[in-house]
Amino acid sequence: MNIIRAIALLVCCLVAGLHAAGARKSARSVIEIWVWGGPSQLETFDPKPNAPKDYNNGLKAIPTNVPGIEIGEMLPKLALQADKYSIIRTMTHPHRGHETATYLMQTGREPGDGKVYPAIGAVIAMFKAKEYQGDIPPYVILTIPKGRFSEIGFLSEEYSPLVTGGNPSQARFIVDGIVPPGGLSSKELGQRFALLDKLDTLRQHAPAACPELQAFAEAGTYARKVIEGDAAKVFDLSLEEAAMRDRYGRNSVGQSCLVARRLVQVGVPYITINAQGWDSHKRHFETMKQRTAEMDQAFATLLQDLAEKDLLDSTVIWWSGEFGRGPKIDWEAPWNGGRNHYSKCFSAVVAGGGFAGGRVVGVSDEVAGEVVSRPVAPQDLLGSIYELCGIDPDGPLPNPIGLQSTVLPPASPAGRLKELYVHSEVKP
Amino acid sequence: MPRSTHHFRRRLRLQLCVVVATLVSAALFAVDVSSPYRKDSTVPVHSEIDRILAAHWERLGLARPCEASDAVFVRRATLDLCGRLPTNDEARDYVAKQDPDKRRQLIERLVNSEGFIEYWSLHFCDLLRVKSEFPINLWPNAVYGYQRRVQHFLRENEPYDHFVKSLLLATGSNFRVPEVNFYRATANRRAAGLARAAALTFMGARSDQWPEIEQQRLAAFFDCVACKSTKEWKEEIVYLKERDTELVLTRPDGKVVRVPPGADPRQVFYDYLREDGNPYFARALANRVWYWLLGRGIVHEADDLRADNPPLIPELLDALAAALVTSGYDLRYLCRLVASSAAYCSASCPPPEYAQPDLAREHFAVFALRRLPAEVLDDVICDLTGVSSSYSSVIPEPFTYVPPEARTIALADGSISSSFLILFGRPARDDGVLAERNNGINGKQRLYLFNSGDLYRKLGRIGQRDDFKGRPFLQNIPALYWLFYSRPPTRDEYQLLRDEWSLQPGGKARWRFQQDLAWVFINTSEFLYQH
């Protein structure tokens, strides 16, 4: 016990030392809440209660626990956590198609130069893989792939995401491949493995040094370790108190956030929650009502839970879609009160891992349609996340195709989000 | 006394069982050779290709390779030429057949079947980047037109040069003239991007590695190509820009060509490709076909032809390219030539005394193992279990419906979302390099195969196959082996399974054991690999 205390004290001293020097250890994990389809800035983090009804549909803004910051009335729980996150109200880029915008927001690169760059998740997985060393792959997506482009780009396959599939809001979250499907005990599985060892006749006849079969055996050893070891427990939500599951909300987004927290606890470097259903061309407000309720509870609980568990400082959370939505509501049929794609000015949220909370970056105009001050380009948002993770966005991007490239293109003139960094310097 | 009688009876019963089993197995198995994967004979040397290979092996001091067994060969050829496993009957008939000409007949039958059209259109659609979404953005109706054009080329056995000409010289609507999609299927639609695509596709060369000046010279051939949109949603017209001056272009071989106003500079590029002695055009296809059938190009990587990346066996590539030209650019002829070569019928598991198997593998004297490609693996599992995978594409709109009976190898659109296909290395079709397809193995794939609910559901249906239903398990063992491996079980395998079966106490355990066995088979290297 004394030894543990001594170590703890030593760690505290070291951390304090770093703090004193104005530096901090880089963030260990990133949780990306990908708001697939493009969330409306007006109904979330950039409300315009004084705009005409054709813009805000009469919706109000509510105060948060940070004086001077207001957010949309549909997010009451997040209003109570505003000290933990900062809002960027002036994200901007020129792409209004899902696929090009997704590519830009995920890679920081303009589409169309002929190369497909890797998404931030794969890049961080690559940089963090060495220090991580866990059995769960370093990049996990809950629960379905983004599907717009190949997220590993030209990086090697080992950094491709583990896509969980399954539904975490069910009693048992079955992660395809990791959690054995119903009815098979570990003993029965063991019998299968034993039989497999005896019956793989080709392996007994192939040349001993056959490289393909060596890779096959190694992959098998890894997979068995995951199945037979403790790794799969990270997805076992029955190990959480029922009250905790309730707190996050018993829906896919809520329980995905809970799984994300558990993945952070075991050190997985990058987790994406692919939140569905925000592409609200039609009947926008009905859709928002349900989406925001679930998102509000899930996101607010995630922030609070991470803070309670002392994980917020080492975990970057970012929340964004590929773009926002048009400020003016389309009341005509077939839209019947819809909002279209809009990328000139939209909102994103960052928290934890060295991002300060309780701040707002940028000012949008009276309808959240134009950037008034402090534009933030996609590569500046991503560059800031990289910096807090101890990865130099201007440094080389190692890759198997021999391409000379930096991690990101140069920052825009407005620059990365230095105004949100808690510490002036980050130690890798 | 009663006890010993009982004991005696049991022993008698056991012995009887053994006798019966031995009789049964004698009937089921041919003479048990040392390996089910090879013959005792060495590969025959028939053609000029074979003589080049044999001479090459001799120079390296490699012994003449062992021939793959008939069972291995029928599986290998059916997988590579048609993207599926042989049926139970196809495999048995081929192995049983005594005709010395049977290999040629098999290849002939396979390249003339619908499976060849489906599977090889997958190869060509990879090269031609057939995909509706980012960064290619062809849009679904163009994707289907483009794939049908590729299938037409294969179905009619259209001369390859003719097919290429139709792509290179195409103009018109992306929805009405499928060939123009060659120009639209590029992530970079400026002249430089089009030139890069043309060099990669038709010259097997990576022009982005060329000196800047050579890249610009090639791009100048494609400066004339432009796109404009119409009033139809996502329709685009590929057209040639008007030009009233003469163009002076430099071909990749340095020859300067004057192109008068009104003439199509792309024709000049095509003429260059087709010219006698062009070091790229025919060789690029020959090398790719070799790569698709043998797993590694004679030039490696197989689409990186350049002066400082010489072929492993230069005479071999020259001979294949020459044969392609002489045949009138007949793709099927080239496939037949490669599939009947000594390299293609060599064993993957040489006898233990065979020296330097690693060197031999590198030089095509030992057949290299390859994991089944994603789409083939999916089809094979569906064929075995009778449960098909369903695909649809929700992006982009309008949603694409794919009928459940459609084969996965025939999926037109590289953008169709599928965790399975992504996991098993389906190519992104972003730039069309062969290395986009990843047939390597990894832990996540083996996790899926060990433990996926999706796969469990499919395997659970295997006992429902008409040929298994209602038959005693032991009788199904040979059929299982033929289905999964295109061969009968060896005596050891059969005995092991019989023993394991007898250990299963009752109905439920026995039912489970059959599931176990299907699971085991799916997870063996013999099943997962082309060998």
From TrEMBL, chain A:
InterPro entries: Alkaline_phosphatase_core_sf, DUF1501
Swiss-Prot/TrEMBL keywords: Signal
Signal peptide residues on this chain, from the entry's feature table: 1-20
Protein name per its UniProtKB record: DUF1501 domain-containing protein
Protein source organism: Oligosphaera ethanolica
Automatic annotation (TrEMBL), chain B:
Organism listed in the record: Oligosphaera ethanolica
Domain named DUF1553: residues: 266-498
UniProt domain DUF1549: residue ranges: 48-228
PANTHER family for this protein: CYCLOINULO-OLIGOSACCHARIDE FRUCTANOTRANSFERASE-RELATED, F-BOX DOMAIN-CONTAINING PROTEIN
InterPro entries: DUF1549 (IPR011444), DUF1553 (IPR022655)
Pfam families: PSCyt2 (PF07583), PSD1 (PF07587)
Name listed for the protein in its UniProt record: DUF1549 domain-containing protein
